[in-house]
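Q: What does the assembly look like in three dimensions?
Context provided by user:
Components: two
Sequences:
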Amino acid sequence: MSLNGVTVKPSVTLAPPQLDEGGAAALLPLKVVELGFQVRGQALLEGISFELDTHATTVVLGPNGAGKTLLLRLCHGLLSPSTGKITWGRSSPGEAAARIAMVFQNPVVLRRSVLGNVTYPLRLRGVPRAQRRSRALTALERTGLAALAARPARALSGGERQRLALARAWAMEPEVLLLDEPTSNLDPQATHTVEELVRSLRASGVKILMTTHDLGQARRLADDVLFLNQGRLLRHMPVERFFNAPEHSAIEAFVRGDLLL
Amino acid sequence: MQDLSVALSTAVALIFDWDSDLREIVTLSLQVSLTAVFIAALIGLPVGAAVGLLHFRGRRLVIAAMNALMGLPPVVVGLLVYLLVSNSGPLGELQLLFSPAAMVIAQCVLVTPIIAALTRQTVEDLNEEYAEYLRSLGAKPLQRVVTLLWDGRFSLLTAVLAGFGRAIAEVGAVIIVGGNINHVTRVMTTSITLETSKGNLSLALALGLILICLSLLANLAVIGVRDVAQRRYG
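A: Here is the predicted structure of the complete assembly.
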């Protein structure tokens, strides 16, 4: 799982849902049933149903404005659905939230040191003081930020901020990681680093649900794809089929690079 | 011009002499204003944070009122506090009129809205930025407030220093409730008023110079804090 080493992608079917060491109920499967979200009468998401039951990496694809970020926020419990239901195992998103970490498209960087940004969520989630620092430093090492630990976090570049956001999420040791466009606006080198991180997180058993509008990234990272367009889920299928035989004209057009109007 | 240069040289000599009268006046000024600002911060910081974070009916009105109160005329505050602490007032039994305590109350009334209004703005802006992340982490309300106050610490310190600048420089309120009694309630601004009217320009000028230096120091501190914050925390 080294950053520079070759990472072999395991097959799609990983661990089935089960009890974790703490005996807490498993978060998988994630069940989304007839999910809808309206703002002032306008349906931003409508009739979305799917079920994710493996620790595979699921990528939410779709053009801008399709509702990808909104779907992630709803799954995290930051918003409540207008209609339908989301359950993580037997828990509601609100109950599950403490075991889920989310990395936002534009991560909020606290006015503290880089290290302080990583230890902060650990404190909120009740990690004992003695462990916070070492866990944070490990996460910073994994993300290549260890040398910047003492720096003020707000002086970081865009790519470094994105890696810091991942380090923070990693240090929390979540069971599920929600990533919203983790590499938008990053250069190829930074994108590569972030993708390697996502791969090694996946390999360590973290369920990843991420959005992107980068087809190449979906191809590189996804095990299965949720394709959203105009607030509707058009398909949920394994990544190979998505790219080779999508059986849907809008997806074919999207994969070809056409604009979906 | 002759007068001014003579007064100025005498003033400088007085400052360097640092005689006991001068020392007494400066010390009382600092005591009164620092106490007032300390109490105002204890009230203004939490009130500002609460108004910045909570949603309640009439919130806009409260914000408008806080902003308006930032520009309270000191003499009016002096008059109100006078009515409050004078023998026939509701706090008359405490016998506070013409005491440093009354001056602290008056300056506190002047400074609290400044600190509260600036805190409200700071905390609200910061919350807008942090809210979703903190919610994602499951921060409890108190943790949220502590986080916002800590991350806004430099802006908040600026607010407190602005309050101090206001307190140390105002004359209208303290002269009404303090009475400018020698060795008891005489502070720099009230002494300047008195000495000027007596024609003792050099002492007035000496006090004026010290006052300007203190205001300058407070403002330099504001700039310095902002500068450090900008460089270290963006």
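Follow-up: Chain B touches chain A through 17 residues (CB under 8 Å).
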